[in-house]
Write a structure and sequence with these properties.
It is a single chain. This protein is an alpha/beta fold. The termini are far apart.
Length: 329
């Protein structure tokens, strides 16, 4: 079961939650009609600091399903936009920042919209990564978070599992992209057609991808890449992945190599090592814990692979990047 969690907080823009929530519910309903009892289950929930009603920017109250302490792990997290100056709300709730750091370490995809991107920036998760925010707050955002690589010309940015969108409309485009990952092209097209006519821009054409991989026309291999990106933290048997996409192992390996210039194993290894690099840089997890987070139970194997790909050990890499990132001032 996939779990999608929406954070609620005071002074939030209601549509930054209600619109993607309704789009995801529409996708869930369409998938159930199409797939019957075989449709994959998705749990959609809201959470907040506590279970008290949350007042939105227009005075409309929303009641959370659960509170942060009991929400558990999530596959996708949505962070709302905040009305006007976001800093007071962001600074007021350090527990939200801790929750986001833990969720990121556990492999959650986190999507923030507009000024809600300040939650990710304040938590340090966007340091040295591309991001965007609402155009009105570009200058303030740049001053407050100088280490973030602000991409003013893009509506959506993606850095690993972190997504930022500049507006509610851009966030709707991003939600169509998430629906495609969860349910496939047909359901994503259904959701797109049944919501605002403005939700027509291609996610890829309005987005900045950090470390984007080679584009290719093999749609089934693209879906396999997405599946590997989403499930990198699990124990993965690549022969089962081939079966999942209705190919023999030989055919899967051949098509994957032709499309990406990498074998499926090499691709999975690089996805995992990129996540590991980020965890070594931004978290206090030890090397064994980092290995476990990205799907390697054998820390020796993880270390050997890290050295093979980066010519340095995980511990040496952490020491190097932290020496560059942290200074006395």
């Amino acid at each position: 079961m996939h779990k999608i969690t929406f954070l609620l907080c005071d002074n939030m823009l209601a549509t930054s939650t209600t619109l993607p929530f309704e789009m995801l519910r529409a996708a869930e309903s369409a998938a159930r009609v199409k797939g019957g009892s075989h449709a994959e289950a998705v749990l959609i929930q809201t959470t907040a600091i506590n279970k008290l009603a949350v007042n939105t920017s227009i005075g409309f109250s929303l009641m959370p399903d659960t509170e942060l302490q009991e929400v558990g792990n999530s596959d996708i997290i949505y962070l709302p936009a905040l009305w006007r100056n976001p800093r007071p709300i962001v600074k007021k709730h350090p527990e939200i920042l801790d929750w986001l750091c833990t969720a990121y370490e556990n492999g959650a995809m986190i999507s923030a919209v507009g000024t809600g991107c300040c939650f990710l920036a304040e938590a340090g998760l966007l340091n040295d990564k591309p991001a965007t925010t609402h155009w009105h707050y570009f200058d303030q955002f740049q001053r407050d978070y100088p280490r973030v690589k602000l991409k003013r010309q893009y509506f959506i940015t993606q850095a690993g599992n972190l997504y930022c969108s500049a507006s509610v409309n851009a966030m709707a485009d991003l939600t169509v992209h998430f629906v495609k990952r969860l349910y496939g092209e047909a359901i994503a097209s259904f959701v797109e057609r049944n919501f605002s006519h403005e939700i027509r821009r291609s996610y890829e054409n309005t987005s900045y991808f950090e470390g984007s991989t080679k584009q290719h026309p093999d749609e089934e291999i693209v879906q396999a890449q997405i599946w590997l990106q989403d499930n990198y933290h699990r124990q993965i048997n690549l022969s089962e992945v081939a079966t999942r996409f209705e190919m023999s192992v030989r055919t899967f390996n051949r098509r994957f190599k032709n499309a990406t210039e990498q074998t499926p194993l090499q691709y999975l290894q690089r996805v995992r090592i990129e996540i590991a690099k980020d965890l070594l840089q931004t978290s206090n997890l030890n090397v064994s814990e980092v290995a476990d987070k990205i799907g390697y139970q054998d820390v020796g194997h993880f270390t050997a692979l890290f050295v093979k790909l980066l010519a340095t050990s995980p511990r040496e890499y952490r020491a190097t990047v932290r020496a560059k990132l942290f200074t006395a001032d």
